[in-house]
Amino acid sequence: MKLRSLVPGAFLVLLFFSAALVSYVWTPFDVTLIDIKSRFQSPDATHWLGTDHFGRDLFSMLMVGARTSIFVAIVAVGIGMLVGVPLGLAAAANTGNLLDEVIMRTNDMVFAFPALLIAILITASYGPGAVNAIIAIGIFNIPVFARLSRAAALSVWKRDFVLAARAAGKNALRISLEHILPNITNLLIVQGTIQFSLGILAEAGLSFVGLGAQPPIPSWGRMLSDSQTLIMTEPQLALIPGLAIVLTVLGLNLLGDGLRDWLDPRLRRER
Questions:
Q1: Which of 53, 119, 194, 216 is the most interior residue, by most CB within 10 Å?
Q2: Which structural domain, as residue segments, surrounds residue 221?
């Protein structure tokens, strides 16, 4: 049983998910509380990770920042899957037809615009914020899942049991839901963990340039942005959120690798 990447990945993901969930009901300090007299404190029994340039507790901000980053990434990946997977299945069911060409060429057009550029276009019209970051990252995820689901579905459409289902009179929609989707779910789960890690990076990048979550809501990218002018005198202000981003993304990638091995039927037979 290959659990070398699954177990540590699941542990890291569970750690930061737990911090995000706990932050909804408890944090050591109010993250909006400014206490200039307590600024730049070193870690102690009161402030476990110290305080920032406004005297805010870094551990509390890290917990709420996890909530912000994870929430944005989850919703953005959900948008990508809910829209992209049906489009990919529809394209695979109508391969070579006009619908297939329209869906895939539209995906190619969306792929030409990275998430940051989409966010700039959206925020130029509606202003910066977490909601607009979700929309931008979600739009970028749609062609990813559409391409993957189409490619995976095309190989399943050639299987004998699908041919038998067609001979039995089932239409394309029913075959896609009953036979195609269950056989590509494992690929979608693995890709979802990968896009989730990329979503956290994208949210941190958008917040870093001021297009993501806005003050007073903490986010890891905003914490990095606020600390860049103090990197030489107070490096921990950048190291703490940076390390949180690295460990979360690492955990998600390890989890994705572990799930790929766990869900692969060939490796399952070897176990």
A1: 119
A2: 6-21+49-270
Q: pLDDT truncated to tens, each residue of the chain (271 aa)?
A: 456 788 999 999 999 999 999 999 999 999 988 889 999 999 999 999 999 999 999 999 999 999 999 999 999 999 999 999 999 999 999 988 999 999 999 999 988 887 778 878 887 788 888 898 899 899 989 999 999 999 999 999 989 999 899 898 889 999 999 999 999 998 999 999 999 999 999 999 989 988 888 888 899 999 999 999 899 999 999 999 999 999 999 999 999 988 887 876 555 555 5
30 within a domain of the structure (yes/no) = no
For the CA atoms of 63, 245, 4, 8, the dihedral, rounded to the nearest 10 degrees, stands at -10
Reading the block at residue 96, the tokens are 């070579």
Distance of CA 33 to the CA centre of its chain: 29
User: Looking at the 3D structure of the chain, how many domains does it have?
Assistant: 1
Burial class (CB in 10 A: 0-12, 13-18, 19+), 111: middle
258, part of any domain? yes
Is residue 41 one of the residues assigned to a domain? no
Buried b (16+ CB within 10 A) or exposed e, 230-251: eeeebebbbebbbebbeebbeb
Say what the pTM is. Answer: 0.90
Burial of residue 193 (number of CB atoms within 10 Å: 0-12, 13-18, 19+): buried
Interatomic CA distance for residues 15 and 237, integer angstroms: 21
